[in-house]
UniProtKB/TrEMBL annotation:
<feature type="transmembrane region" description="Helical">
    <location>
        <begin position="238"/>
        <end position="260"/>
    </location>
</feature>
<keyword id="KW-1133">Transmembrane helix</keyword>
<keyword id="KW-0012">Acyltransferase</keyword>
<feature type="transmembrane region" description="Helical">
    <location>
        <begin position="97"/>
        <end position="118"/>
    </location>
</feature>
<dbReference type="Pfam" id="PF01757">
    <property type="entry name" value="Acyl_transf_3"/>
</dbReference>
<feature type="transmembrane region" description="Helical">
    <location>
        <begin position="266"/>
        <end position="285"/>
    </location>
</feature>
<dbReference type="InterPro" id="IPR050623">
    <property type="entry name" value="Glucan_succinyl_AcylTrfase"/>
</dbReference>
<feature type="domain" description="Acyltransferase 3">
    <location>
        <begin position="12"/>
        <end position="346"/>
    </location>
</feature>
<feature type="transmembrane region" description="Helical">
    <location>
        <begin position="53"/>
        <end position="76"/>
    </location>
</feature>
<keyword id="KW-0378">Hydrolase</keyword>
<keyword id="KW-0472">Membrane</keyword>
<feature type="transmembrane region" description="Helical">
    <location>
        <begin position="168"/>
        <end position="187"/>
    </location>
</feature>
<feature type="transmembrane region" description="Helical">
    <location>
        <begin position="297"/>
        <end position="320"/>
    </location>
</feature>
<dbReference type="InterPro" id="IPR002656">
    <property type="entry name" value="Acyl_transf_3_dom"/>
</dbReference>
<dbReference type="GO" id="GO:0016747">
    <property type="term" value="F:acyltransferase activity, transferring groups other than amino-acyl groups"/>
</dbReference>
<feature type="transmembrane region" description="Helical">
    <location>
        <begin position="20"/>
        <end position="41"/>
    </location>
</feature>
<feature type="transmembrane region" description="Helical">
    <location>
        <begin position="138"/>
        <end position="156"/>
    </location>
</feature>
Length: 359
């Protein structure tokens, strides 16, 4: 069943949020490069205490930013399906997500992963390439394809959710946080933190309950008008809740262990993620719901930046390998160079014939 599309003005605040989240992705991976979490194509493990600060940045980022991406993706999914119908929607998702995924696997990954092959004498590169197969940061596209197909299947069997404004109530938020924390805790019994899924390349499968539920909430938020109806005070309360939950729960992560530590971690991540997402959503809606030519340029190229940024970061990592400096200084230098370079290369990539259809 095809629903009547809803006419709405462009939400520039969400475009601007996508820009900020993309910057956070780049910063996150630069922090991984120079911190103490060696989960990237090129790393220089920290030799000083500032690496711990980068690890904290990674921890706080990881708690909410990819869930926020899935929420935004879910928010735009019902409207896209309404406009295009089921078959066109699926085809569009496979083009917009599947082709960049294949491009990364076939063209970009051999370049960014070549450093790991150095010194492996006697092993042909193709053997190493297949043995270390994973989609890198394009796991996001991989998972999003699954979510989009699941949504299309659901819509093929059921009528869409009714379109009506319904304010998001505080008790629903609290129940969601507690429910997400409980499900995450149970999920991490078979899928503990640090689990890596080979071939699929999921770097953080312990967060899948958050990702799936955020995508679903984004779909509901579109139908219920939650983005537009969240009161301004909810933004302030969101930031306060994020700060309080971190001040109370994060220290406990360092003094507890076993199941208790896992429970505290699940509760903090859930509370922090929801609080930050509400805070940032309202703040951007109230303060940054407009866009000039520069903002439009950054928004138009944000997805391409996400796809190509590993190539830029690995290249800069090798280029500055000679530099002797504390971890946080190298982080700052590489990040300052990487951001404009990523957007410039993204611009060149989208200038290729047919690229804008995909990117």
């Amino acid at each position: 069943m095809k629903a009547e599309p809803r006419t709405r003005t462009r939400l520039y605040a969400i475009d601007n949020l996508r820009i900020v989240l993309t910057v956070l992705v780049v910063a996150h991976h630069v922090a991984v490069t120079y911190g103490n979490i060696p989960l990237w194509f090129y790393t220089e493990p920290a030799k000083d205490a500032s690496g711990g600060l980068l690890d904290l940045l990674v921890m706080f980022d990881q708690a909410f930013f990819m869930g926020f991406f899935f929420l935004i993706s879910g928010f735009f999914t019902p409207g896209s399906h309404d406009r295009k119908g089921g078959r066109s929607f699926v085809r569009d998702r496979l083009i917009r997500l599947g082709i960049p995924l294949l491009v990364f696997l076939v063209l970009l990954r051999p370049l960014v992963n070549f450093g790991g092959f150095a010194g492996r004498e006697g092993m042909p590169y193709w053997h190493y390439y297949i043995g270390s197969w994973d989609p890198g940061p394009m796991w996001f596209a991989e998972v999003l394809i699954v979510f989009a197909l699941a949504y299309a299947l659901w819509r093929s069997r059921r009528a869409p959710l009714e379109q009506r404004a319904e304010p998001l109530r505080a008790k629903w938020i609290v129940l969601y946080v507690l429910g997400l924390a409980a499900v995450t805790f149970l999920w991490r019994i078979p899928v503990p933190t640090g689990t890596y899924v080979p071939v699929l390349g999921l770097p953080s499968p312990q967060f899948l309950p958050q990702y799936a539920s955020m995508f679903a909430l984004g779909c509901v938020a579109f139908r219920r008008g939650w983005f537009e109806t969240l009161p301004a005070r909810a933004g302030r309360l969101g930031f306060v809740a994020a700060g309080v939950s971190s001040a109370v729960l994060v220290p406990l992560l360092f003094v507890t262990g076993g199941a208790l530590s896992s429970a505290v971690s699940a509760l903090w991540e859930s509370a922090f993620a929801v609080s930050m997402i509400i805070g940032l959503t309202v703040w951007f809606r109230e303060r940054f719901n407009r866009q000039g030519p520069r903002g439009r340029f950054l928004a138009d190229h944000a997805y391409t930046v996400y796809v190509i940024h590993p190539l830029v970061l690995v290249g800069l990592g090798w280029a500055f390998r000679w530099l002797e400096a504390i971890a946080i200084v190298k982080f700052a230098i590489v990040l300052a160079l990487a951001l404009p370079l990523c957007w410039w290369i993204a611009y060149l990539a989208r200038s290729l014939p047919g690229a804008k259809r995909v990117l």
